[in-house]
Amino acid sequence: MTPDHLLALVFVGGGVGMFGLYLDTAWHRTLGRDTFWSLPHLLMYGGGMAAYASAVGGIALASRFGSEAFGGPVLGRRRLRFPLGFTVALVGTLVIIAAVPVDGWFHWTYGTDVLVWSWPHMQLLLGAALADVGILLALAAQRGRGWFGRPSVWPLAMTLVVVDLVQRVHYGLAHYTQVPETRTPDFYPLLVALSVPALLVTAARAIGPWAPVAVGLLFFGAALLVDVTLSLIDFARYTLTPVFALPALVVSTLYAVAGRARDRAGLALLAGALFAAAFVTIESVWMARALGHPWADRAVLAALPATLGAGALSGWVGWVLGGFARALAREISPAVVFGGRRRARAAAALAVALVAAGSVSTYRPQRFGKPMTVAEMRLAPVESFPAQEAIFWEVLILDEWPAAGRIQAYSEGIIEPFPLPIGPAWCAETPERLDAELSGVHFGLEINGERIDLAPYRVVRRPLRDGRHCGWVGVAAAFVRASVNRFVYEVERAEGRSSVEMTVVFKDP
User: Does the predicted TM-score (pTM) go above 0.85?
Assistant: First the structure.
């Protein structure tokens, strides 16, 4: 067993975990709520356990047989030896493992997940990113050793780790990646500017000037493979665009022509700002031309200073991380790279502080208005819609429906610029049985105390993925805003009456 084998295990686990993360978001969009034991969770935790095993194996190998096979600094305490990169990766995997009981508690307290942006998911994402940074440092230290002594293997391995970090960002963008119409001109570019420039500048500084383009293209290739897989299993798919590859070209070009200035912090600041500017420009054009949902020029310009500033500081963080990775790869002291030990320590401390500040800046507490009136919703007939987009779908997937006479339910979602189906439904095992049962079913709906006349709306037949055939009252809300609402559904049939009291929460994107 060598460090090469342990790092190979990480790449296998990383691939499994990457697909698990993408499948998790698609699962939410296609099947709705999940459970702790859902397939995406098992894949994600399996990938995390592979990284954990690799990190523990690295420490055990160094402690038992010596640290000669490991590059970079190796910390020691009594008989234990802690290679730097493997130790950082271990801390990240412990954060992932700690997310397991948190996720279980979350399910026990709040029920199954409704949105991707939940605390257990974000904790998992943080731990995975920290583990990736540890693996990046471990790989940097192995340059010229074993398998990584081959000229093409080490740069490719380093690039793949950065690709995995970019994928973490892409996953964290949640609904922005699957429903592009929800992308905002302020918060969406800010999230990207806070994270991606740091990763691309790290690649340019530690691997080479054209590494950012390689990262963007390899990420696009991975996204394409995921898209094909999701299409084969008929799951909701992501918006497939070279979302990071084109702005990455700006960073690579800048580093390629910079010459001796490549090592300067000012270049990293400029690279981050230019990436942010290119990203906003490309996304603005795409939103207007491809989607027909143009961003307001005033909103883009108002958010641009914060986005450019975030991109510049993010690039500087990449300059720091890339500098430490470069020092490990060249087997020199960080003091040589940063111009002194104090400067190296100060740069590391400031980078950590900026990462923490950037994370805190993304917290945007939702402000809700008053419960909506029926007139505000502008109800209109709807003839066709995906069943999982309907409010009442949250009821149909409950185990107690329709046996229980009274059901408490909860629905929470991001506001999308499409009509929202709000009508009740009834399901049967076959289309013929549905037709027979619908004649004896009577529906009722009350929204925030206002009774809705459902008579003018036709019944729309839509199947569910579990094989049931359902008839929905085809009424949709053309407009919703951030609010907490009370929907009361009534379904009467010969066997009895079922009532559903549902809290319906609309959140800003």
Answer: yes
